[in-house]
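Protocol step 4 of 6: structure prediction from sequence.
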Amino acid sequence: MLIKNAEVAGRLVDIVCRDHEIVDIGPNMEPPQSPSAPIIDAAGCAVLPGLHDHHLHFFALAALRESVDLKAAGNSAAMVKLLREAKSSEWLRAVHYNETLHGELQARRLDEVRSDVPVRVQHSSGKMWVLNSRALARLDVATSTHPGVERYLDGRPTGRLFRMDGWLREAMGEQGMRPGIMLGRELASYGITGFTDCSYTNTQADLFRFHQILQQVYMMGDDGLNAGHLKIMLDEDALPDRDNLIARIESARHRGRGVAFHCVTEVELLFALSALSTVGYSPHDRIEHAALASPAAVELMAEAGVSVVTQPGFLADRGERYRREVHGDLADLYRYASLLHAGIPTAASSDGPYGPISPWTVMAAAVTRETDEGLPLGETECVSPQEALRGYLAPSQAPGGSARELRAGGVADFCILDRTWQAALDNLGAVTVLHTVIGGELVHTRKAMTQAAP
Protein backbone atom coordinates (compact mmCIF):
# COMPACT_ATOMS: atom_id res chain seq x y z
CA MET A 1 0.00 0.00 0.00
CA LEU A 2 1.20 3.51 -0.86
CA ILE A 3 -0.24 6.68 0.68
CA LYS A 4 0.79 9.68 -1.39
CA ASN A 5 0.82 13.37 -0.46
CA ALA A 6 0.15 12.72 3.22
CA GLU A 7 0.59 15.42 5.85
CA VAL A 8 2.47 13.74 8.70
CA ALA A 9 3.79 15.84 11.58
CA GLY A 10 3.68 18.97 9.42
CA ARG A 11 5.51 17.44 6.43
CA LEU A 12 4.13 16.32 3.06
CA VAL A 13 5.33 12.73 2.60
CA ASP A 14 4.46 9.34 1.18
CA ILE A 15 3.85 6.25 3.34
CA VAL A 16 4.72 2.75 2.18
CA CYS A 17 3.14 -0.23 3.94
CA ARG A 18 3.79 -3.92 3.48
CA ASP A 19 1.88 -6.65 5.29
CA HIS A 20 1.13 -5.22 8.77
CA GLU A 21 3.99 -2.73 8.88
CA ILE A 22 4.90 0.79 7.79
CA VAL A 23 8.00 0.17 5.70
CA ASP A 24 9.05 3.76 5.02
CA ILE A 25 7.94 7.37 5.28
CA GLY A 26 9.40 10.10 3.10
CA PRO A 27 9.02 12.11 -0.10
CA ASN A 28 8.58 10.47 -3.51
CA MET A 29 8.31 6.87 -2.30
CA GLU A 30 8.10 4.05 -4.86
CA PRO A 31 4.85 2.05 -4.87
CA PRO A 32 4.86 -1.57 -3.65
CA GLN A 33 5.69 -4.23 -6.22
CA SER A 34 2.37 -6.03 -5.82
CA PRO A 35 0.02 -5.11 -8.70
CA SER A 36 -2.98 -5.32 -6.39
CA ALA A 37 -1.55 -2.99 -3.74
CA PRO A 38 -3.77 0.08 -3.41
CA ILE A 39 -2.51 3.62 -3.84
CA ILE A 40 -4.30 6.36 -1.93
CA ASP A 41 -3.79 10.05 -2.65
CA ALA A 42 -4.23 11.88 0.64
CA ALA A 43 -4.18 15.18 -1.29
CA GLY A 44 -2.32 17.01 1.47
CA CYS A 45 -4.70 15.91 4.23
CA ALA A 46 -3.49 14.88 7.67
CA VAL A 47 -2.65 11.24 8.39
CA LEU A 48 -2.74 10.29 12.06
CA PRO A 49 -2.00 7.14 14.01
CA GLY A 50 -5.19 5.18 14.58
CA LEU A 51 -7.30 6.44 17.46
CA HIS A 52 -7.76 4.37 20.62
CA ASP A 53 -10.94 4.66 22.67
CA HIS A 54 -9.80 3.99 26.23
CA HIS A 55 -13.22 3.10 27.65
CA LEU A 56 -16.17 1.50 25.90
CA HIS A 57 -18.38 -1.58 26.16
CA PHE A 58 -18.27 -3.18 22.74
CA PHE A 59 -20.99 -5.80 22.88
CA ALA A 60 -23.35 -3.54 24.78
CA LEU A 61 -22.79 -1.00 22.01
CA ALA A 62 -23.41 -3.65 19.34
CA ALA A 63 -26.66 -4.58 21.07
CA LEU A 64 -27.67 -0.91 21.17
CA ARG A 65 -27.76 -0.91 17.39
CA GLU A 66 -30.58 -3.47 17.62
CA SER A 67 -32.41 -1.82 20.52
CA VAL A 68 -35.19 0.71 21.02
CA ASP A 69 -33.43 3.91 22.06
CA LEU A 70 -35.49 5.80 24.65
CA LYS A 71 -33.13 8.78 24.75
CA ALA A 72 -35.40 10.76 22.42
CA ALA A 73 -38.50 9.95 24.51
CA GLY A 74 -38.92 13.11 26.55
CA ASN A 75 -41.68 11.80 28.80
CA SER A 76 -43.50 8.67 29.92
CA ALA A 77 -46.08 8.77 27.12
CA ALA A 78 -43.34 8.97 24.48
CA MET A 79 -41.56 5.98 26.04
CA VAL A 80 -44.77 3.93 26.02
CA LYS A 81 -45.40 4.81 22.39
CA LEU A 82 -41.91 3.73 21.32
CA LEU A 83 -42.14 0.39 23.13
CA ARG A 84 -45.63 -0.41 21.85
CA GLU A 85 -44.73 0.39 18.24
CA ALA A 86 -41.43 -1.54 18.27
CA LYS A 87 -41.48 -4.71 16.19
CA SER A 88 -40.07 -7.87 17.72
CA SER A 89 -40.79 -11.55 17.24
CA GLU A 90 -38.44 -12.63 20.04
CA TRP A 91 -36.82 -10.38 22.64
CA LEU A 92 -37.46 -6.64 22.77
CA ARG A 93 -34.53 -4.66 24.15
CA ALA A 94 -34.63 -0.95 25.04
CA VAL A 95 -31.97 1.36 26.42
CA HIS A 96 -31.54 4.82 27.97
CA TYR A 97 -34.50 4.57 30.33
CA ASN A 98 -34.48 7.42 32.87
CA GLU A 99 -36.90 7.53 35.78
CA THR A 100 -36.85 11.34 35.87
CA LEU A 101 -38.28 11.47 32.35
CA HIS A 102 -40.13 8.18 32.12
CA GLY A 103 -41.34 7.48 35.66
CA GLU A 104 -40.69 4.50 37.89
CA LEU A 105 -40.54 1.22 36.01
CA GLN A 106 -41.11 -2.30 37.26
CA ALA A 107 -42.39 -5.53 35.69
CA ARG A 108 -46.03 -4.69 36.35
CA ARG A 109 -45.83 -1.39 34.49
CA LEU A 110 -43.87 -2.96 31.63
CA ASP A 111 -46.57 -5.65 31.34
CA GLU A 112 -49.14 -2.91 30.73
CA VAL A 113 -47.01 -1.63 27.87
CA ARG A 114 -45.88 -4.93 26.29
CA SER A 115 -46.79 -8.41 27.47
CA ASP A 116 -46.66 -10.22 24.11
CA VAL A 117 -42.86 -10.66 24.07
CA PRO A 118 -40.06 -10.75 26.68
CA VAL A 119 -38.91 -7.16 27.28
CA ARG A 120 -35.77 -5.86 29.00
CA VAL A 121 -35.09 -2.16 29.47
CA GLN A 122 -31.72 -0.77 30.52
CA HIS A 123 -31.35 2.27 32.77
CA SER A 124 -29.31 5.13 31.30
CA SER A 125 -26.63 4.59 33.96
CA GLY A 126 -26.08 1.03 32.73
CA LYS A 127 -26.40 -0.34 36.27
CA MET A 128 -29.98 -1.62 36.17
CA TRP A 129 -32.25 -3.67 33.90
CA VAL A 130 -36.04 -3.83 34.16
CA LEU A 131 -37.73 -6.98 32.83
CA ASN A 132 -41.41 -7.63 32.18
CA SER A 133 -43.12 -10.74 33.53
CA ARG A 134 -42.62 -12.75 30.36
CA ALA A 135 -38.87 -12.04 30.48
CA LEU A 136 -38.70 -12.88 34.19
CA ALA A 137 -40.36 -16.23 33.52
CA ARG A 138 -38.23 -16.97 30.44
CA LEU A 139 -35.03 -16.52 32.49
CA ASP A 140 -36.45 -18.06 35.66
CA VAL A 141 -35.38 -15.02 37.67
CA ALA A 142 -37.54 -16.05 40.63
CA THR A 143 -35.17 -18.92 41.46
CA SER A 144 -31.99 -16.85 41.12
CA THR A 145 -29.96 -16.27 44.26
CA HIS A 146 -28.12 -13.28 42.76
CA PRO A 147 -28.17 -10.34 45.24
CA GLY A 148 -29.00 -7.95 42.41
CA VAL A 149 -32.56 -9.26 42.08
CA GLU A 150 -34.91 -6.74 43.70
CA ARG A 151 -37.87 -8.44 45.37
CA TYR A 152 -41.17 -7.58 47.02
CA LEU A 153 -41.61 -8.52 50.68
CA ASP A 154 -43.21 -11.80 49.63
CA GLY A 155 -40.10 -12.74 47.63
CA ARG A 156 -41.44 -12.15 44.11
CA PRO A 157 -39.07 -10.28 41.75
CA THR A 158 -40.09 -6.70 41.03
CA GLY A 159 -38.48 -6.94 37.60
CA ARG A 160 -35.52 -4.72 38.48
CA LEU A 161 -32.06 -6.31 38.27
CA PHE A 162 -28.99 -4.44 39.54
CA ARG A 163 -25.46 -5.07 38.22
CA MET A 164 -26.47 -8.36 36.60
CA ASP A 165 -25.06 -7.97 33.08
CA GLY A 166 -22.91 -11.08 33.38
CA TRP A 167 -25.78 -13.12 34.80
CA LEU A 168 -28.08 -11.94 32.01
CA ARG A 169 -25.57 -12.79 29.32
CA GLU A 170 -25.12 -16.30 30.69
CA ALA A 171 -28.86 -16.82 31.21
CA MET A 172 -29.71 -15.67 27.69
CA GLY A 173 -26.94 -17.67 26.03
CA GLU A 174 -26.67 -17.10 22.29
CA GLN A 175 -29.70 -14.78 22.37
CA GLY A 176 -27.45 -12.19 24.01
CA MET A 177 -24.57 -12.55 21.53
CA ARG A 178 -24.54 -10.21 18.55
CA PRO A 179 -21.91 -10.12 15.82
CA GLY A 180 -19.57 -7.16 16.05
CA ILE A 181 -18.53 -6.93 12.40
CA MET A 182 -20.78 -3.99 11.51
CA LEU A 183 -19.92 -2.15 14.71
CA GLY A 184 -16.21 -2.66 14.04
CA ARG A 185 -16.67 -0.98 10.68
CA GLU A 186 -18.58 1.88 12.28
CA LEU A 187 -15.75 2.46 14.74
CA ALA A 188 -13.26 2.34 11.85
CA SER A 189 -15.26 5.08 10.11
CA TYR A 190 -14.27 7.39 12.98
CA GLY A 191 -10.60 6.42 12.69
CA ILE A 192 -10.71 4.07 15.71
CA THR A 193 -8.21 1.24 15.26
CA GLY A 194 -8.23 0.02 18.86
CA PHE A 195 -10.27 0.20 22.03
CA THR A 196 -10.29 -0.87 25.66
CA ASP A 197 -13.33 -2.92 26.62
CA CYS A 198 -14.09 -1.99 30.22
CA SER A 199 -16.90 -4.42 30.98
CA TYR A 200 -16.33 -5.73 34.49
CA THR A 201 -18.07 -8.99 33.55
CA ASN A 202 -15.41 -9.95 30.99
CA THR A 203 -13.90 -13.36 31.73
CA GLN A 204 -11.10 -15.42 30.23
CA ALA A 205 -13.74 -17.29 28.26
CA ASP A 206 -14.90 -14.04 26.66
CA LEU A 207 -11.64 -13.53 24.77
CA PHE A 208 -12.96 -15.45 21.76
CA ARG A 209 -15.75 -12.87 21.32
CA PHE A 210 -13.21 -10.30 20.20
CA HIS A 211 -11.34 -12.46 17.70
CA GLN A 212 -13.37 -11.41 14.65
CA ILE A 213 -13.35 -7.70 15.40
CA LEU A 214 -11.35 -5.36 13.18
CA GLN A 215 -9.82 -3.31 15.99
CA GLN A 216 -6.98 -4.12 18.37
CA VAL A 217 -8.65 -4.86 21.72
CA TYR A 218 -7.31 -4.35 25.23
CA MET A 219 -9.70 -6.12 27.58
CA MET A 220 -10.17 -5.60 31.28
CA GLY A 221 -12.54 -7.68 33.37
CA ASP A 222 -13.01 -9.92 36.37
CA ASP A 223 -10.62 -11.64 38.78
CA GLY A 224 -10.24 -14.66 36.50
CA LEU A 225 -8.54 -12.86 33.62
CA ASN A 226 -4.89 -13.72 33.10
CA ALA A 227 -4.03 -10.22 31.89
CA GLY A 228 -5.56 -6.78 31.59
CA HIS A 229 -6.83 -4.58 34.39
CA LEU A 230 -9.09 -5.90 37.11
CA LYS A 231 -12.24 -3.83 36.74
CA ILE A 232 -13.84 -3.01 40.09
CA MET A 233 -17.37 -1.64 40.14
CA LEU A 234 -18.26 0.63 43.03
CA ASP A 235 -21.80 1.67 43.96
CA GLU A 236 -22.04 4.30 46.67
CA ASP A 237 -25.19 2.67 48.08
CA ALA A 238 -23.61 -0.80 48.29
CA LEU A 239 -19.85 -0.49 48.73
CA PRO A 240 -17.99 -3.82 48.96
CA ASP A 241 -16.42 -5.26 52.07
CA ARG A 242 -13.12 -3.41 52.42
CA ASP A 243 -11.04 -6.44 53.48
CA ASN A 244 -12.33 -8.45 50.54
CA LEU A 245 -11.64 -5.56 48.18
CA ILE A 246 -8.06 -5.23 49.41
CA ALA A 247 -7.55 -8.97 48.95
CA ARG A 248 -8.75 -8.67 45.33
CA ILE A 249 -6.35 -5.79 44.66
CA GLU A 250 -3.42 -7.69 46.21
CA SER A 251 -4.24 -10.77 44.14
CA ALA A 252 -4.29 -8.65 40.98
CA ARG A 253 -0.96 -7.09 41.95
CA HIS A 254 0.65 -10.53 42.39
CA ARG A 255 -0.49 -11.46 38.88
CA GLY A 256 0.96 -8.30 37.36
CA ARG A 257 -2.43 -6.69 36.77
CA GLY A 258 -3.41 -3.12 37.45
CA VAL A 259 -6.82 -2.24 38.84
CA ALA A 260 -9.42 0.07 37.32
CA PHE A 261 -12.10 1.54 39.59
CA HIS A 262 -15.51 2.66 38.31
CA CYS A 263 -16.10 5.92 40.23
CA VAL A 264 -18.95 8.28 39.39
CA THR A 265 -19.46 9.81 42.85
CA GLU A 266 -16.90 11.32 45.17
CA VAL A 267 -17.72 8.77 47.86
CA GLU A 268 -16.82 5.98 45.43
CA LEU A 269 -13.65 7.81 44.43
CA LEU A 270 -12.47 8.33 48.00
CA PHE A 271 -13.28 4.72 48.88
CA ALA A 272 -11.16 3.51 45.93
CA LEU A 273 -8.23 5.76 46.83
CA SER A 274 -8.40 4.64 50.44
CA ALA A 275 -8.17 0.98 49.42
CA LEU A 276 -5.24 1.73 47.10
CA SER A 277 -3.41 3.59 49.86
CA THR A 278 -3.67 0.50 52.06
CA VAL A 279 -2.33 -1.87 49.42
CA GLY A 280 0.20 0.56 48.02
CA TYR A 281 -0.04 2.76 44.98
CA SER A 282 0.85 1.58 41.48
CA PRO A 283 1.24 3.71 38.33
CA HIS A 284 -0.73 1.02 36.46
CA ASP A 285 -3.95 1.78 38.35
CA ARG A 286 -6.81 3.70 36.75
CA ILE A 287 -9.86 5.65 37.79
CA GLU A 288 -12.68 5.30 35.27
CA HIS A 289 -14.90 8.40 34.95
CA ALA A 290 -14.01 10.40 38.10
CA ALA A 291 -17.33 12.02 37.24
CA LEU A 292 -17.36 14.12 40.41
CA ALA A 293 -14.05 15.11 41.96
CA SER A 294 -13.47 17.98 44.36
CA PRO A 295 -10.11 19.79 44.43
CA ALA A 296 -9.18 17.71 47.48
CA ALA A 297 -9.96 14.50 45.59
CA VAL A 298 -7.83 15.69 42.69
CA GLU A 299 -4.90 16.13 45.08
CA LEU A 300 -5.40 12.61 46.41
CA MET A 301 -5.44 11.15 42.88
CA ALA A 302 -2.23 12.99 42.06
CA GLU A 303 -0.64 11.59 45.22
CA ALA A 304 -1.80 8.08 44.30
CA GLY A 305 -0.24 8.31 40.84
CA VAL A 306 -3.33 6.88 39.12
CA SER A 307 -4.42 7.75 35.61
CA VAL A 308 -7.95 8.96 34.85
CA VAL A 309 -10.13 8.12 31.87
CA THR A 310 -12.84 10.76 31.64
CA GLN A 311 -15.87 11.35 29.38
CA PRO A 312 -16.41 15.01 28.43
CA GLY A 313 -18.77 13.76 25.71
CA PHE A 314 -21.43 13.37 28.40
CA LEU A 315 -21.56 17.17 28.64
CA ALA A 316 -22.49 17.42 24.96
CA ASP A 317 -24.97 14.59 25.34
CA ARG A 318 -26.73 15.41 28.63
CA GLY A 319 -25.13 18.53 30.09
CA GLU A 320 -28.40 20.34 30.72
CA ARG A 321 -29.74 17.34 32.60
CA TYR A 322 -26.64 17.45 34.79
CA ARG A 323 -27.29 21.12 35.42
CA ARG A 324 -30.76 20.22 36.73
CA GLU A 325 -29.96 17.02 38.61
CA VAL A 326 -26.40 17.18 39.94
CA HIS A 327 -26.30 18.28 43.56
CA GLY A 328 -23.03 19.97 44.36
CA ASP A 329 -20.42 22.00 42.57
CA LEU A 330 -20.75 21.60 38.79
CA ALA A 331 -17.09 22.61 38.52
CA ASP A 332 -16.30 19.13 39.88
CA LEU A 333 -18.04 17.43 36.95
CA TYR A 334 -15.89 15.47 34.47
CA ARG A 335 -12.74 17.45 35.12
CA TYR A 336 -9.97 17.46 32.53
CA ALA A 337 -7.67 20.51 32.58
CA SER A 338 -7.30 20.52 36.37
CA LEU A 339 -6.34 16.83 36.31
CA LEU A 340 -3.60 17.55 33.80
CA HIS A 341 -2.42 20.56 35.80
CA ALA A 342 -2.14 18.29 38.84
CA GLY A 343 0.13 15.95 36.87
CA ILE A 344 -2.47 13.19 36.51
CA PRO A 345 -2.25 11.24 33.21
CA THR A 346 -5.69 11.81 31.69
CA ALA A 347 -7.41 10.73 28.50
CA ALA A 348 -10.92 11.16 27.14
CA SER A 349 -13.09 8.28 25.97
CA SER A 350 -16.65 7.54 24.88
CA ASP A 351 -18.01 5.10 27.49
CA GLY A 352 -20.11 3.80 24.60
CA PRO A 353 -22.93 2.95 24.47
CA TYR A 354 -23.67 5.32 27.35
CA GLY A 355 -21.97 8.35 25.82
CA PRO A 356 -21.40 9.66 22.28
CA ILE A 357 -19.32 7.21 20.23
CA SER A 358 -17.59 9.55 17.80
CA PRO A 359 -14.14 10.50 19.14
CA TRP A 360 -14.42 13.78 17.26
CA THR A 361 -17.58 14.66 19.20
CA VAL A 362 -15.86 13.73 22.47
CA MET A 363 -12.74 15.73 21.61
CA ALA A 364 -14.81 18.77 20.62
CA ALA A 365 -16.64 18.57 23.95
CA ALA A 366 -13.31 18.48 25.79
CA VAL A 367 -12.29 21.68 23.99
CA THR A 368 -15.56 23.64 24.28
CA ARG A 369 -17.32 22.09 27.33
CA GLU A 370 -20.63 22.93 25.66
CA THR A 371 -23.82 21.17 26.73
CA ASP A 372 -26.49 19.71 24.47
CA GLU A 373 -28.04 23.20 24.35
CA GLY A 374 -24.75 24.83 23.41
CA LEU A 375 -24.14 26.44 26.80
CA PRO A 376 -20.76 26.28 28.59
CA LEU A 377 -20.39 24.04 31.64
CA GLY A 378 -17.15 24.14 33.60
CA GLU A 379 -15.17 26.29 31.17
CA THR A 380 -12.08 26.18 33.37
CA GLU A 381 -11.76 22.48 32.50
CA CYS A 382 -11.41 23.12 28.73
CA VAL A 383 -8.30 21.65 27.11
CA SER A 384 -6.56 22.49 23.87
CA PRO A 385 -7.40 20.60 20.66
CA GLN A 386 -3.89 19.11 20.72
CA GLU A 387 -4.45 17.79 24.26
CA ALA A 388 -7.87 16.38 23.42
CA LEU A 389 -6.42 14.51 20.45
CA ARG A 390 -3.41 13.31 22.46
CA GLY A 391 -5.75 11.37 24.72
CA TYR A 392 -6.97 9.29 21.79
CA LEU A 393 -3.40 8.78 20.54
CA ALA A 394 -2.07 7.48 23.86
CA PRO A 395 -1.12 3.76 23.98
CA SER A 396 -3.84 1.32 24.99
CA GLN A 397 -2.23 0.50 28.33
CA ALA A 398 -1.15 4.06 29.15
CA PRO A 399 -4.09 6.47 28.86
CA GLY A 400 -2.76 9.98 29.18
CA GLY A 401 0.69 8.86 28.06
CA SER A 402 2.75 10.19 25.16
CA ALA A 403 1.00 10.25 21.81
CA ARG A 404 1.85 7.46 19.38
CA GLU A 405 3.55 8.57 16.15
CA LEU A 406 3.71 7.18 12.64
CA ARG A 407 7.17 5.71 12.01
CA ALA A 408 8.93 3.21 9.80
CA GLY A 409 8.83 -0.20 11.42
CA GLY A 410 5.61 0.58 13.29
CA VAL A 411 2.29 -1.18 12.90
CA ALA A 412 0.28 0.11 9.94
CA ASP A 413 -2.67 1.46 11.94
CA PHE A 414 -3.65 4.96 10.84
CA CYS A 415 -6.44 7.17 9.55
CA ILE A 416 -6.60 9.80 6.80
CA LEU A 417 -8.64 12.90 7.55
CA ASP A 418 -10.57 15.11 5.13
CA ARG A 419 -8.47 18.17 5.99
CA THR A 420 -5.06 19.38 7.06
CA TRP A 421 -3.77 19.11 10.59
CA GLN A 422 -4.35 22.80 11.31
CA ALA A 423 -7.86 22.73 9.87
CA ALA A 424 -8.65 19.72 12.06
CA LEU A 425 -7.43 21.53 15.18
CA ASP A 426 -9.56 24.54 14.27
CA ASN A 427 -12.77 22.44 14.40
CA LEU A 428 -12.37 18.90 15.71
CA GLY A 429 -16.11 18.29 15.71
CA ALA A 430 -16.31 18.78 11.95
CA VAL A 431 -13.60 16.25 11.04
CA THR A 432 -14.49 13.39 8.72
CA VAL A 433 -12.27 10.33 8.36
CA LEU A 434 -11.82 9.39 4.70
CA HIS A 435 -9.82 6.19 5.15
CA THR A 436 -8.81 3.91 8.00
CA VAL A 437 -6.08 1.28 7.81
CA ILE A 438 -5.71 -1.45 10.44
CA GLY A 439 -2.78 -3.83 10.29
CA GLY A 440 -1.97 -2.69 6.76
CA GLU A 441 -5.51 -3.42 5.53
CA LEU A 442 -7.82 -0.72 4.22
CA VAL A 443 -10.93 -1.35 6.35
CA HIS A 444 -12.81 1.90 5.77
CA THR A 445 -13.01 4.30 2.86
CA ARG A 446 -15.57 7.08 2.55
CA LYS A 447 -15.15 7.88 -1.11
CA ALA A 448 -13.30 6.53 -4.11
CA MET A 449 -9.75 7.87 -3.85
CA THR A 450 -7.86 4.63 -4.33
CA GLN A 451 -6.31 3.03 -7.39
CA ALA A 452 -4.29 -0.09 -8.10
CA ALA A 453 -0.53 0.18 -8.37
CA PRO A 454 0.67 0.38 -12.00
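Step 5 (inspection) to follow. The two ends are 12 Å apart (CA to CA).
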